[in-house]
Design goal:
Strand content: under 5%
Largest sheet: 2 strands, antiparallel
Structural class: mainly alpha
Strand order of the largest sheet: 1-2
Helix content: 55-70%
Number of strands: 2
Oligomer: single chain
Number of helices: 6
Shape: elongated
Order of helices and strands: HHHHHHEE
Distance between the termini: 77 Å
């Protein structure tokens, strides 16, 4: 069975760390498991697929170690791996665009609501 086939059968973060022989602290993994695996997956996508099984296993190991180190030094909130966390700090765009008419003095303001 190839390394990719073996990896595809793993189901928990702990299994990935054990399979790739990467030491970890359970406290770190409990907080950032999905973030670590996502970071690893993102970085693996940019690497060469043309490796033999031993080189491929070492490549995955290296990427998992780096992703784990990122979250030992930082937090999921600071690293913002997932889109929802990235969007949370993205500046909100203004939805209202002032309307101006050529030749008029400035912008047309929306009507003020009248109190009854």
């Amino acid at each position: 069975m190839t390394v990719l086939e073996q990896l595809s059968r793993l189901s928990s973060a702990e299994e990935f760390f054990q399979f790739l022989n990467v030491p970890y602290e359970p406290a770190v993994l409990n907080v950032a498991r999905l973030h670590i695996l996502k970071r690893m997956g993102d970085s693996v996508r940019g690497s060469s697929p043309q490796l033999d099984d031993d080189a491929l296993r070492e490549n995955f190991r290296t990427h998992l170690q780096q992703a784990y180190r990122d979250f030992v030094r930082s937090t999921p909130l600071n690293e913002r791996v997932f889109k929802v966390l990235k969007d949370a700090v993205r500046p909100k765009a203004s939805r209202l665009v002032p309307l101006s008419i050529p030749g008029s003095k400035g912008n047309i303001e929306p009507p003020k609501s009248r109190s009854v």
